[in-house]
Specification:
mainly alpha; Fumarase C, Chain B, domain 1; Fumarase C, Chain A, domain 2; two-stranded parallel ribbon; 6 strands
C-alpha cells in the first residue's frame, strides 16, 4: 500500500487488524447460523463468541509454517477458543471468508470515499456561487473563444462530481455481495441459510450464484469507477495547472508562507499538488485495467487475481482518498484573479465578438459564406497587426453597408454572452 499517502481512516480500514476482524465476523456469524440449524451446540457457540480472538503477529508466525493465510488465521483463533473451535469454518472454503470479508472492506472504503466526494462537492459549489458572475474567457483548443464565468466552470465540476457520487454509490452497491456457498458454489456442505444469515449480519446481499469466488466483474466495476473519479480529478487539476501558467494566471494553488517552488529559481510558484494529482490518476487507471484482467479465471476459480488484488484494491482506495483530500484543500484555498481574467478577455481586442457580428450580418440578409468572409478578413487583420476588431468593423464599408454604427456598438457587449447564466444555475436550485 502507498503508506506515505494513507490517511488515518483509510489506514484503519485496510489495516491487518480490521481485515482479520472481518474474517472473524464471518466465521462467528456462520457459527450462529449453523447453531440455528442445529449443527453447532449452543454451549459451543457461546464459548466461541466469548473467547474467539486473534493476534496479528501470531497469525504471521503460523503462516510462515502453513503458507496458507486462512489456516493460519483459524489456527490462531482456535488457540483462543479451545475445543469448541472445531465448529469454526465448518463446511466453509477459504474464499467464503476472504471474498465476503473483502466485500465488506470495499463497501466500508467506498462509503468513506462517497463522504470525501461530498466534501469536494461542497467546496466546488462554494466557488461556483462566489464566482457566478465573474467573467472569464472560454477556450476551445486552448484558443480564446467566447466569454463564460468562472462560476460556470466550477458548476460544471459540481455536476461531474454529482455523477461521480452516483457512480461510487452504485459501485458500493455492486460490491456489497457475499458468498458462503462452499468449494464450487453448490452449497454441498453448507446450508444456504448460513449465507443469507452471514450476509445480512455483514450488511451485504448474497450473490445469486457463485463459484468458489465472487465473480470479479464486481471488483472491476468498483476499480473502474475509482479510475473514472480519478480521471475527473485529473481533468480538474489539469485545468488549474493551465490557468496557473504565468501568461494566463487566472487561478492558482495557494502558496503558503515558507513554501519553495524551485531549488534553483526563488521566484517559482509551481502547481505541485495538482501535478501530483494528475500523476496519481495514472495509477488508478492502470489498476482498473488490472482489475479487468482479473475477471477471466479458470473454471470455478484460480488465484491469479488474489495476489494483485491485495495491492490494487487497497492502493486504489487509498490513492483516491488522498487525491480527494488534497484537491478539496486546493479548492477551499484556491487563489482566483478576476482582474487577470478580465485582462485576458480583452487581449484579443474584441475578436471574441466575431460570431455575434457574423450572425447579425446573416440576419440582415447576407449569405453565411459572405458574412463569414467579411468578418474573418477583419479578424485576421486583428490577429496580424493587433488592430482593434470593432474599429476595423466600423471602417469596413462592406459591413457598414449592412449595419449602422449604433448596431455595431451593441454587438460588443459582454452581458449578451452571460444572459443565460442564471438559468443554468436554476438547474442546481441555486
Amino acid at each position: 500500500m502507498i503508506e506515505r499517502y494513507t490517511l488515518p481512516e483509510m489506514k484503519r480500514i485496510w489495516s491487518e487488524e480490521n481485515k482479520y476482524r472481518k474474517w472473524l465476523d464471518v466465521e462467528i456469524h456462520a457459527c450462529e447460523a449453523m447453531a440455528e440449524l442445529g449443527r453447532v451446540p449452543p454451549g459451543a457457540l457461546a464459548e466461541i463468541k466469548e473467547k474467539a480472538d486473534f493476534n496479528v503477529d501470531r497469525i504471521v508466525e503460523i503462516e510462515a509454517v502453513t503458507n496458507h493465510d486462512v489456516i493460519a488465521f483459524t489456527t490462531c483463533v482456535a488457540e483462543y477458543v479451545g475445543d469448541a473451535a472445531k465448529y469454526i469454518h465448518l463446511g466453509l472454503t477459504s474464499s467464503d471468508v476472504l471474498d465476503t470479508a473483502l466485500a465488506a472492506l470495499m463497501k466500508e472504503a467506498g462509503e468513506h470515499l462517497v463522504k470525501r466526494l461530498g466534501r469536494l462537492r461542497a467546496a466546488l459549489l462554494e466557488k461556483a456561487v462566489e464566482h457566478r458572475y465573474t467573467p472569464m474567457i472560454g477556450r476551445t483548443h486552448g484558443i480564446h473563444a467566447e466569454p463564460i464565468t468562472f462560476g460556470l466552470k466550477m458548476l460544471l465540476w459540481v455536476a461531474e462530481t454529482d455523477r461521480n457520487i452516483e457512480r461510487m454509490e452504485r459501485a458500493v452497491a455492486r460490491i456489497s455481495a457475499g458468498k458462503i456457498s462452499g468449494a464450487v458454489g453448490t452449497y454441498a456442505n453448507i446450508d444456504p441459510h448460513v449465507e443469507n444469515y452471514v450476509c445480512r449480519k455483514m450488511g451485504l446481499k448474497p450473490a445469486r450464484v457463485s463459484t468458489q469466488v465472487l465473480q470479479r466483474d464486481r471488483h472491476a466495476e468498483y476499480l473502474s469507477t475509482i479510475a473514472v473519479i480519478g480521471s475527473s480529478l485529473d481533468k480538474f487539476a489539469t485545468e488549474i495547472r493551465s490557468l496557473q501558467r504565468t501568461d494566463i494566471l487566472e487561478a492558482e494553488e495557494f502558496f503558503k508562507k515558507g513554501q519553495k517552488g524551485s531549488s534553483a529559481m526563488p521566484h517559482k510558484r509551481n502547481p505541485i499538488v495538482t501535478e501530483r494529482i494528475c500523476g496519481m490518476a495514472r495509477l488508478l487507471r492502470g489498476n482498473a485495467l488490472v482489475a479487468m484482467e482479473n475477471v477471466p479465471l479458470w473454471h470455478e476459480r484460480d488465484i491469479s487475481h488474489s495476489s494483485v488484488e491485495r495491492v490494487i484494491i487497497p492502493d486504489s482506495t487509498i490513492t483516491l482518498d488522498y487525491m480527494l483530500v488534497k484537491f478539496t484543500d486546493i479548492m477551499e484555498n484556491l487563489l482566483v484573479y478576476p482582474e487577470n481574467m478580465r485582462r485576458n478577455i480583452e487581449k484579443t481586442r474584441g475578436l471574441i465578438f466575431s460570431q455575434r457580428v457574423l450572425l447579425t450580418l446573416v440576419e440582415k440578409g447576407l449569405s453565411r459564406e459572405r458574412a463569414y468572409e467579411l468578418v474573418q478578413r477583419n479578424a485576421m487583420q486583428t490577429w496580424r497587426a493587433g488592430d482593434d476588431f470593432k474599429e476595423l468593423i466600423l471602417k469596413d464599408s462592406d459591413v457598414m453597408a449592412v449595419l449602422a454604427a449604433p448596431e455595431v456598438d451593441g454587438l460588443f457587449d459582454y452581458d449578451y454572452h452571460l444572459k443565460n447564466v442564471d438559468g443554468i444555475y436554476k438547474r442546481f436550485d441555486l
